[in-house]
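User: Can you help me understand a structure? I only have the sequence.
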Amino acid sequence: MMAMGAEGVFVGSGIFKSTDPKAFAKAIVDATTHWNDPAVVLAAHSSIPEEAQAMDGLDIRQLAEHQLLAHRGR
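Assistant: Let's start by predicting it. Here is the structure, written out as C-alpha cells:
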C-alpha cells in the first residue's frame, strides 16, 4: 500500500486478534514506516514471535454470496 502512495494503513483487527498485539503492532509500525527498506521489513517480520502471528485470512472463494460486501459488475 505504501508503494502505491498510501500515507498509512489500518490493520486494527490484524493487531487485536493476534496473540501478542503489542509485538505485532510494533512490527507493523516498523515495516510500514520503513517499507522501502527490505532489511527493516524482514527484521520487523522476524521480530514477531511465531505464536503471536496474526489472525487467519479468509479465502474469498469459500464465502457464500450473501457474505460478500459488494456485488460488482451485475
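Now, to help you interpret it: The chain has a mean pLDDT of 83. The first helix runs from residue 12 to 16. Let me know which part you'd like to focus on.
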